[in-house]
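Q: I'm teaching a short session on how sequence maps to structure, and I want students to see two examples side by side rather than one. Could you give me a first protein with its sequence written out and its structure tokens following it? Keep the formatting plain so it prints cleanly on a handout.
A: Of course. Example one:
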Amino acid sequence: MADIELTLSTVPVTFLSGNSAFAGAEGNNAAWICECGEPIPLLGRCYFQFGHDCHTVCPACSRTYRVLPDPNKRATAVQEIRPITQQGAQNVQP
């Protein structure tokens, strides 16, 4: 089976503060800069082969993000979410 060429695209990033930015996305992965300004880009994915929800936490400020997929499990956006609780359930954003 041959490799499938992935297309690099730009997708929106939405922060809880109401600000927005852009992420680079390829396949089910996206990379973006946290709103806190941490210079090392965060990397997230919208699909995990075992069915778990994926989220990315900034090591500098602990903001939590989720990469949102399209029906084909390709990254379409990044959204800051409320922190994940101890039980693993996400607090719903207003």
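Q: Perfect. Now a second example for contrast.
A: Example two:
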Amino acid sequence: MNKETILFTKEEQDKLCGKNSFLINKTLFEDIKLMSDGEVKYLIYVIFEYVIYGVIPDLLNEDQRFVRVAFNRFKCDYVKDSKKWLETCKLKSERKKEDWQKRKKNTTV
């Protein structure tokens, strides 16, 4: 198994672990149509290992080329969506902090 290059800080990784879901874009289904049942099962395993543990099992065998292509597409989408979700969380947190400070200021006046 390969350790994935660190894309998120420890704090971001912890926050992502608390996220209950992620999206799989429809474009991935085009790749899945070309795969055997065994390849689809392996793809689900690889996605699980990546999302839960941040590890990518080796995908170097020639017979895993469809899994490798599909997983790379998934990984790009997952990273992009995760970064967007983390940014949204950060903005919401900042907004709540600003609102709290405004309320605190208004009640002390």
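Q: What should students look for in example two?
A: Point them to this: The chain has a mean pLDDT of 82. Also worth mentioning: The chain is about 70% helix and 5% strand.
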